[in-house]
Amino acid sequence: MSDVILVGVSGAPVSRRAVDWAVARAAERHQRVELIAVVGGALGTVGEESVVRDALAATQEMLDEHVARVADRGVAVTTRVERGNPVSVLADASAHAALLVLGSDYRGEGGPARGPHGVRTAAAAKCPVVVVPDIDLGERSGVVVGIDGSEVSEHAIRFAAAEADRLGEPLIAVAVWTPLHAPRNSSAVYPELYLANMQAATEEVLALSLAGLREDYPDLEVVRHVVQGYPAFVLNEMAHTARLAVVGTHGRGAIARFLLGSISQEVLARLATVTAVVR
């Protein structure tokens, strides 16, 4: 497995947070960091090559400033500047990375939702993606992971457990169940037995998903939550007090590589904390 953490850097202030997060993780896990920035073309403009040349030089200078800023943190940091479509370039580069880290300009409740650009990058990437919002995490604690019993969910659990263990934080395992949608204008009431069975079945899924985790992480504190509700809403609510949230994505295939599952997409659209998307 690669030991490189790839960081997609732009001119936005939040890139500083993304670089800092990646460097801190690399220092603890003895990894390297590569900063990558993508410059698009100025197609159809007069003097295009001159414009692009200047942009490439300015972008390299920006990356060099980030390298100088973190030079005393004991992590090897390299840089590269590419031309092309940011989503495609970052997706291709991620094939050789252990992790891709992106900054998000989302600033919490009341701020703009993250645009589709970052969501598409997370969907197309070939490695886990961590999205760092422009939010002060302050005194937050815990690593939240969404669990649904799928194979992708297992990968998310392993990633989240490793991060919780690294950070010395509790793992907050969340399984959410949603009652079947009642017909419009229906006065139907869910039988108590149905609700109880759904709760019990979801508790069993959670227990099975976490089985064996103690062997690998004997000192890890695991907090379990089984909640009735809508998964993306519940995960975002719990993530508001967490240092990290982890979700899985089921996207596969030529078309699906640019699509995230609805839950992971909604979680990214309203970031409550640093969020990892694991496939």
Describe the fold and architecture:
The chain has 279 residues and is an alpha/beta fold. The chain folds into two domains: 1-135, HUPs (Rossmann fold); 137-279, HUPs (Rossmann fold), CATH 3.40.50. Helix content is 42%, strand content 21%. The protein is built from ten helices and ten strands. The chain has helices at residues 14-29, 48-69, 86-93, 116-124, 151-167, 192-210, 213-216, 231-239, 253-256, 262-269; strands at residues 4-8, 32-39, 77-83, 99-104, 129-133, 143-146, 171-177, 222-228, 244-248, 274-278. It has a ten-stranded mixed sheet with strand order 3-2-1-4-5-10-9-6-7-8, with helices on both faces. α1 links the parallel β1 (4-8) and β2. α8 (231-239) runs parallel beside α10. The longest helix has 22 residues, at 48-69. The protein is elongated. The model is unreliable at 251-259 (pLDDT under 50).
CATH topology of the largest domain: Rossmann fold
Cα(first) to Cα(last) distance is: 15 Å
CATH superfamily of the largest domain: HUPs
How do the SSEs run, as a string of H and E?
EHEHEHEHEEHEHHEHEHHE
Task: List the strand order in the largest sheet.
Answer: 3-2-1-4-5-10-9-6-7-8
Largest sheet: 10 strands, mixed
Supply the helix-strand structural class.
Answer: alpha/beta
**Beta strand %:** 15-25%
Give the mean pLDDT: 87
Total discrete domains: 2
Number of helices: 10
Rg estimate, integer Å: 20 Å
Low-confidence stretches: 251-259
